[in-house]
Specification:
Blueprint lengths: L6 E10 L3 E8 L10 H4 L2 H7 L11 E5 L2 E9 L13 E11 H7 L7 H29 L1 H31 L14 H11 L1 H16 L1 E6 L3 E6 L15 E5 L3 H7 L6 H9 L6 H8 L3 H13 L3 E5 L6 E4 L10 H9 L5 H5 L8 H5 L4 H16 L3 E13 L19 E3 L4 H14 L4 H9 L4 E5 H8 L3 H10 L4 E6 L1
Antiparallel strand pairs: 1-2, 1-5, 3-4, 4-5, 6-7, 8-9, 10-11, 11-12, 11-13, 11-14
InterPro entries: HTH_NPRL3, Npr3
Family: Belongs to the NPR3 family.
Protein name: GATOR1 complex protein NPRL3 C-terminal HTH domain-containing protein
Length: 499
């Protein structure tokens, strides 16, 4: 996904057959006179000139890099032949432009987990968004002349504000006895005023504003262009989540309120999607949701993957008393941070730091919850879900390793105590023959029993590649059966807890 905060703004350039190339709209305005980004330092005339490419370069992605500023745009050439219903079209070209801060990408490249192809994917994501938005605007221009009408209004607003500034400037010059020639020089006007007036009168300006904020704040946005064309835009990578990795013991964790997600759905959204959003509960896994909703499991997985793609949900293990959680290293633990203040507003009786202290990654949540009253348990679960939504905590899983004693010696009678000091044990090697010989020796030494038979059946998973819940699902065994095996053969098993 493209990094949030990397887009400095959105701009809209037009080529009018009467007024020539113009920057019709640029959003947002600079934060202050002392914090003017490179996006705003470029004059309107220069932006208009740079982003009016030749027609041969239109109807495709158009990129331009100036220092640490990368512009990703999608210019569209319009046939200006007279329309039977709309008359003569004045707009011959328009260009939807996103300005990206390359310094944000350079900073991320210092992260060891950064992959160089991520930068290319982020640029491609903005190019895709620009193309979708431009094509929607072209559709509305061909249908009702939307772009021509909106551009006419935006340019009129700009000219009117500029004229008012000239008159005001001239009056000041007259009062001070200045040179009359200076009154007709180019006069700068407040960009925020221009934006405010444009937002009050232009549908196009409001659509561009909604797109900018949606992409910057959530990475996705749903807009209705000209109150007619429903458009869903996202910066999320469609390949970043593999649907085949979803398991029945997983569940859907929505990252925002149900109502907000439901309101953002298009009118023709799948009824099953609405049903899943309404029925979702982090305490119930997909298998339970299947029984409750009647939606087939594979369809549930597809719907869940769809919500993950749009950045409004994550796939997690269903919250149970057996889960182990730990505070993430990236969590913002500052007492006066925005998340901490939000937590305090939502859970007035608790402090974020005190609650996070209960997630040390050492014990199941049941250990702490058993000390709470029934009312406090419910509050604790709500806080746990909130912390998962805001990525404060992550789940740890328990992995199992078969430990082969040196020289293949078996612990005497497989006692539950540790092997003798001389029988130092090492993790099971990758050589399958050594493990096979050891298992054969173990079979000869052990009496046949249901526990040993289950141990043999589960032994292929004792290489630290599958956590306990995954093993239970794959082999259809209960937690009690698995624990019986682990307790019986704990002298030749080792355990690791990690994500």
């Amino acid at each position: 996904m493209a990094a949030l905060g990397s887009c400095l703004g959105v701009a809209f350039v037009v080529d009018d057959i009467h007024k020539g190339c113009n920057l019709a709209f640029r959003y947002p305005a600079p934060q202050s006179d002392s914090h003017i980004s490179a996006f705003h330092r470029l004059s309107s005339a220069l932006v208009a000139k740079l982003f009016r490419p030749k027609n041969a370069l239109c109807n495709q992605t158009f990129e331009l890099v100036i220092d640490d500023l990368r512009f990703v745009s999608h210019p569209v050439a319009i046939n200006v032949q007279p329309s039977a219903t709309q008359g003569h079209r004045e707009t011959s070209m328009f260009n939807v432009i996103f300005a990206l801060d390359e310094t944000k990408f350079h900073m991320e490249m210092m992260d060891p987990s950064y992959v160089r192809r991520d930068h290319k994917k982020r640029v491609e994501a903005y190019a895709q968004v620009a193309a979708q938005l431009a094509n929607a605007l072209l559709h509305e221009e061909n249908r009702v002349g939307f772009v021509t009408k909106e551009v006419r209004e935006l340019l009129h607003i700009r000219d009117e504000i500029a004229q008012n500034e000239r008159v005001h400037h001239q009056n000041n010059m007259d009062e001070s006895g200045g040179n009359a020639q200076e009154a007709y020089t180019e006069v700068d006007f407040d960009l925020q005023t221009l934006i405010d007036v444009a937002l009050g009168k232009s549908v196009l300006a409001n659509d561009l504003k909604a797109v900018y904020h949606g992409l910057e704040e959530d990475g996705s946005v749903h807009v209705v262009v000209n109150r007619w064309v429903q458009l869903s835009l996202t910066l999320h990578d469609s390949n970043r989540f593999d649907m085949t990795s979803i398991r029945p013991y997983h569940t859907l964790l929505l990252l925002t309120d149900n109502d907000k997600i439901l309101d953002a759905l298009p009118a023709d959204a799948s009824p099953h999607l609405r049903l899943l959003i309404e029925a979702h509960n982090p305490l119930r896994d997909f298998h339970e949701l299947m029984v409750e909703t009647g939606i087939p499991l594979k369809q549930l997985f597809r719907l869940a993957a769809h919500l993950v793609y749009w950045g409004v949900a994550r796939i997690v293990d269903a919250v149970t008393m057996h889960n182990i959680y730990q505070v993430r290293p990236t969590a913002n633990l500052h007492a006066h941070s925005a998340p901490a203040l939000e937590f305090r507003r939502k859970f007035t009786s608790f402090e974020l730091g005190e609650v996070l202290a209960t997630f040390m990654g050492k014990h199941r949540i049941s250990v702490y919850m058993n000390t709470l009253s029934q009312h406090r348990k419910l509050e604790y679960i709500h806080m746990l879900i909130w912390l998962l939504q805001h990525d404060f905590i992550g789940q740890l899983h328990r992995y199992i390793y078969l430990m082969i004693p040196q020289e293949g010696k078996l612990p005497a009678s497989l006692r539950l105590s540790s092997p003798a000091p001389g029988d130092a044990i090492t993790p099971s090697p990758s050589e399958p023959s050594l493990e096979k010989d050891y298992m054969a020796q173990l079979a000869r030494m052990s009496s046949s029993s249901p526990v040993f038979d289950l141990f043999q059946r589960l032994s292929p998973y004792f290489h630290g590649q599958h956590h306990m819940v995954e093993i239970m699902w794959r082999e259809n065994v209960t937690r009690a059966e698995l624990r019986m095996v682990l307790s019986t053969y704990q002298s030749i098993l080792a355990f690791a807890v990690h994500e």
